[in-house]
Amino acid sequence: MTDARQFLGMEQVGDSLQWRMEVVPEVTTPGNFLFGGCGLGAALVALEAASGRPTVWSTAQYLAFAPTGATLDLTVTLAAEGHRVTQARAVGRVGDQEILTVNAALGLPSAFEGEGVWDAPPDVPGFDECPPRRLPDQFTTSVFDQIEVRQAKGRTFDEITRANGTPGDPTSALWARVPGHLEPSAATLAILGDYVTGGVAQPLGRRVFSRSLDNTLRVVRLEPTEWVLCDIRIQALAHGYGQGMAFMWSESGTLLATASQSMSIRYAPPLP
């Protein structure tokens, strides 16, 4: 069984405030740069190790691309350490160039008894009833090779390619898992939450390139689950920018976390 630290290839350098990862193809996009969710996930591995506390909230601002073959160095700053909550940040650089900045609150659970979830998972078939999501060959040798995905709701890649701009439902859903990784962590959910960008094509009925400008993760509760249901909801598109969310549910219907993003959008060229 692997964990997020192993999946991402994280290495502690010196004390717990300094970390490093190699940008290998297994953590990149098909465009040959670090997948945004992997960048946020790497920062959360470092932040949780440095603070000794689990993630409650985090947000990444993406400033530049880390190309395949680069080395990403992460430096953690524990800005404020309280009785229960640590406010911290991690800055990722390739050489002298800042690639991403992640701010986070990491906190211990309290004895507060009030709780509830006032949302519900979508009514979709289970993972074992859903077809595998199939992508073109040019999407191989990337992070998408490492994550198994099944289409639970919405149009497939081929259906969107054939839709020719026919508008569709702005909601979609995917079952996703990292094989051999049975217990989700904040870092794992950060990776899966970045599938929000792929949901933009659903309402447009056309393939698009979506560049994440930010990625915010809010952790609700972690429980063992092999498959995570990513309930993706595109909320708005205007002036070449989009906003969307993903509600991430366990197999038993527990809300694990939510992820939200702003994205820069452009249409993709036709496939050869």
Can I get a quick summary?
This protein has 272 residues and is mostly beta strands.
- What is the third-level CATH name, the topology? Porin
As a percent range, the share of strand residues is 35-45%
- Biggest beta sheet attributes: 13 strands, antiparallel
* Strand runs, count: 13
- How many domains make up the 3D coordinates? 1
Mean pLDDT: 94
Which range best describes the helical content: under 10%, 10-25%, 25-40%, 40-55%, 55-70% or over 70%? Answer: 10-25%
What is the CATH level 1 assignment? Mainly Beta
Our measurement of the CA-to-CA distance between the termini, rounded to an integer number of angstroms, reads 39 Å
> Could you tell me the radius of gyration in angstroms?
18 Å
Shape: globular
Question: Count the helices. How many?
Answer: 5
Name the helix and strand elements from N-terminus to C-terminus, one letter apiece.
HEEHEEEEEHEHHEEEEE
Q: Keywords, please?
A:
13-stranded antiparallel sheet; 5 helices; Porin; mainly beta; 272 residues; 15% helix
Plain-language structure description:
This protein is mainly beta. The chain is globular. The model has no long low-confidence stretch (mean pLDDT 94). The termini are far apart. It has helices spanning 4-8, 36-51, 157-163, 186-193, 201-204; strands at residues 11-12, 18-22, 55-62, 71-81, 85-94, 97-107, 148-153, 171-177, 208-212, 214-219, 228-238, 241-249, 255-267. Strands 1, 2, 3, 4, 5, 6, 7, 8, 9, 10, 11, 12 and 13 form a 13-stranded antiparallel sheet that branches. The longest helix is centred in the first third of the chain and has 16 residues, at 36-51. It has a single domain (4-108, 125-267), classed as Beta Barrel (Porin).
